[in-house]
Write a structure and sequence with these properties.
Helices cover 5% and strands 38% of the residues.
Length: 566
């Protein structure tokens, strides 16, 4: 089965937001034909692959299952379901053969042969000039006076209005511990990798964020990496850029339309490559240098990312979002079939996924460990339309809840100190203020109401106003993801960081006693392409990693690391 029935709304989700960039870059004319334009199963984007990975004779041939549609009302959506894109064995070694892949925007080309004897490809470091010594700037948090008037704000939602008031005298009694912030800038990325690769890195991967996305809604062990590596794909090779590494650029002879990479899992990294022409996803073990498994897609891929193992069974997890819904894919399982976790439904149908993250915990460990809540930020195809924040229950199957219909940023926030806690994460919403140069940061407590079968905002835990930031916007580069949220909201332990992308403005808060205290703010005056936050394994320091455009060229940039010391 190589195709499924599609309606016009379904056809519009074929990552059309990337086609204009493709046409400008390569001068291509791309057309997507629907059912009425194809006859006899020919044409369209669901053709069978021309080259299939060779398998051992003893292994059963790959079977492609029909992907579920909205008409399958009998399908249950939960963490125990086994809906699959394809049916295949647990591993797939590859004999000598040719993998046919695509160029960055769809031109076919052959790539290196893949051998099953653990030597299909070899990573190599680019021979590059030594980087310029980093710049450092250290400042100490000044003691800030509390506001002289009562701080009152409100949050409107679909279920009513919430407000929180904090008398000024009570805020004056709360003292914030002294903290320091240090800023370290790397050399230009074009001095570490080639200029063409640096420009591709700024443009970013399709249908995902550069660093992968937020993880603040989960309890993560100290020192665990929250900053994903960036994959740049071409017709014949993939470059993996690791921020902060001594040799940040590694090249692998693997061609793909796009790729994402996992953290260190089982002492190795897994590269997940999407081959658009063949509608296949192939997972490579970069340490053993073998193909782990392949997945034959029978629907379109709208968004994907690596998820921390804490989200599903403490194992390797990739998130695949399609026009049907969201799927957890565990390639290392004995039966590695994607499992449907949630459905789009009418609320999310036809909307572009801007970002995705999961949080919360069911209090279990090992194979039974699960996240309980997901946050999806969506937008329409029209530029300038507001971004919406939706909360999805992963354990109850309740309908999606719109936390806000107009946000500039959002994130899940979990300040739990134990992986054994059964918790629902809070949601942090960054909403536009009443003036052009201010915004509100609101932390809301969520609850699942089993009587009404809905997710609700239980209460506003804390809120603060970003009183003033630069009014002038900086130049933004063209990116493969297209339109994205105007702000990044990052959470780690009891820290909340807000970054206004087109202002180059950074502000950090510490959450204590159900209140947000300002740590520091900085104006970089450069566009923020992506950002992530992580902890140190042997200290109490927090690192915020920014990918900034260069002040002279939006096709180049720098990695900036902001360290918050308690």
């Amino acid at each position: 089965v190589w195709a499924c029935q599609r309606v016009i709304e379904d056809t519009k989700m074929m990552m059309n937001e990337h086609l204009d960039v493709a046409k400008k870059k390569k001068g291509l004319k791309v057309s997507i034909r629907n059912k009425e334009m194809t006859k006899g199963g020919k044409g369209g984007l669901l053709m069978p692959p021309k080259v299939v990975l060779n398998r051992p004779p003893a292994q059963a041939p790959t079977q492609v299952c029909r992907f579920p549609t909205d008409d399958d009302h009998s399908q249950q959506v939960d963490n125990a379901s086994t809906v699959s894109f394809a049916d295949f064995g647990s591993t797939a070694s590859v004999d000598t053969g040719i993998l046919e892949s695509t160029q960055e925007y769809g031109t076919k080309s052959n790539i290196a042969k893949v051998d099953g004897n653990l030597t299909p490809f070899v990573a190599k470091h680019d021979n590059l000039p030594l980087p310029v010594p980093p710049k450092e700037n250290t400042s100490q948090l000044p003691a800030s006076d509390a506001e002289k008037h009562e701080n009152t704000a409100s949050l409107e939602s679909k279920h009513g209005s919430f407000s929180l008031s904090m008398p000024s005298d009570e805020r004056d009694l709360k003292k914030h511990r002294l903290a320091t912030i240090s800023v370290q800038e790397s050399c230009l990325i074009s001095e570490e990798i080639r200029k063409s690769a640096a420009a591709a890195l700024i443009r970013g991967p399709p249908a995902t964020r550069h660093f992968g996305g937020n993880r603040g809604g989960l309890y993560l062990d100290p020192g665990s990496s929250n900053v994903g590596n960036i994959c740049i794909c071409g017709s014949e090779k993939t470059v993996i850029f690791s921020p902060g590494a001594s040799s940040p650029g590694k090249t692998y002879p693997i061609g793909a339309s796009g790729a994402i990479i996992s953290d260190q899992v089982n002492d190795t990294e897994y590269l997940c490559c999407f081959l658009a022409t063949d509608k296949r996803i192939v997972v490579f073990d970069l340490k053993s240098k073998i193909v782990v498994v392949e997945l034959q897609m029978t629907t379109k891929l709208n968004f994907w990312r690596f998820l921390p193992p804490a989200t599903h069974g403490d194992t390797l997890v990739f998130m695949l979002i399609t026009p049907i819904g969201g799927f957890h894919w565990m390639p290392l399982e004995e039966s590695p079939r994607p499992r449907q976790i949630w459905r789009r439904g009418r609320d999310l149908q036809g909307k572009k996924i801007v970002s995705y993250e999961e949080g919360g915990s069911n209090g279990k460990v090992g194979p039974d460990r699960r996240s309980t809540m997901a946050l999806v930020m969506t937008s329409t195809a029209a530029s300038g339309d507001p971004v919406e924040a939706w909360c999805l229950s992963l354990s109850s199957g309740f309908s999606p809840f719109c936390a806000s219909q107009d946000v500039i940023g959002a994130a899940l926030f979990n300040a739990s100190t134990s992986k054994m806690d059964t918790v629902e994460p809070n949601v942090v919403l960054v909403t536009p203020g009443d003036r052009g140069n201010n915004a509100k940061v609101v932390i809301c407590k969520l609850k699942t109401n089993h009587d009404t079968h809905r997710i609700e905002i239980d209460e506003i835990v804390a809120q603060v106003e970003i009183s003033q930031f630069p009014e002038v916007s900086v130049a933004a580069p063209a990116m493969a993801m297209g339109e994205a949220a105007p702000a990044f909201c990052l959470c780690c332990q009891n820290f909340v960081v807000v970054i206004l992308r087109n202002k180059g403005f950074f502000v950090a808060y510490q959450f204590e006693d159900n209140d947000l205290y300002l740590i520091d703010e900085k104006n970089f005056g450069r566009y923020v392409v992506d950002a992530a936050i992580k902890t140190h394994q042997e200290s109490d320091e927090i690192d915020v990693v920014l990918l900034l455009c260069d002040s002279e060229s939006v096709k180049d940039g720098r990695i900036v690391t902001i360290t918050i010391s308690k």
